[in-house]
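So, read this over?
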Amino acid sequence: MASSQCCENPPTLNPAGGAGKVVDSFGGLKAYVAGPEDSKAAVVLVADVFGFEAPNLRKIADKVARSGYFVVVPDFFHGDPYVPENAERPIPEWLKLHTPEKGFEDAKPVIAALKEKGVSAVGAAGYCWGAKVVVELAKAKEIQAAVLLHPSFVSVDDIKEVKCPISVLGAEIDKMSPPELVKQFEQVLSANSGVGHFVKIFPGVSHGWSVRYSEDDAAAVKSAEEALADMIDWFNKRLK
């Protein structure tokens, strides 16, 4: 069950945000894209429940793009992100319509479209809800590197089945993936010598911190920037 932490600090969505552009169809989904179109390495960012118009997510996409990646942020919710103000559709009801499993199926044509463009290495990073999509891609060996940020709905059994290098960036204060669970993930990955891994628990931050921070909170911004640097570093090691 999704905790209230899933929905704290909702962003003010901006369909025109970011230095990149929105395309009507990338692998069948509307998407925000940024970075060099001819790059051989690409990164797919999978949003939390607030979707692909979140300003901080687009800033992250632009920064990843500046490291030389072609970045795609698909609209996995088909124009229907979670809206906290909609009392008639609380998060459990919204999740029935937007399962991570459906997101995983929708992500496959996006990755196929990247390969058609000439991309040879694809990484994916997922936030909260999006982390479950990314772990499914990692289990299916659809991608070459994965990053899970404050994951939701990811189990130890999921981690046991991962088939590509994976980084897990967790929060100290997280009901969805408490530090005890993230440490279990690390134990499982350490026992699997065939899969490279990096696991880190960020002190003093809560679920959602890496993408739903306030620009006015210097400490929150610093932690989010550290998570982004760790993510880019992981992709640089595994995709280039």
User: Anything to note?
Assistant: The first strand starts at residue 21 and ends at 26. The two ends are 37 Å apart (CA to CA). Strands lie at 21-26, 29-34, 41-46, 70-74, 121-127, 145-149, 166-173, 197-206.
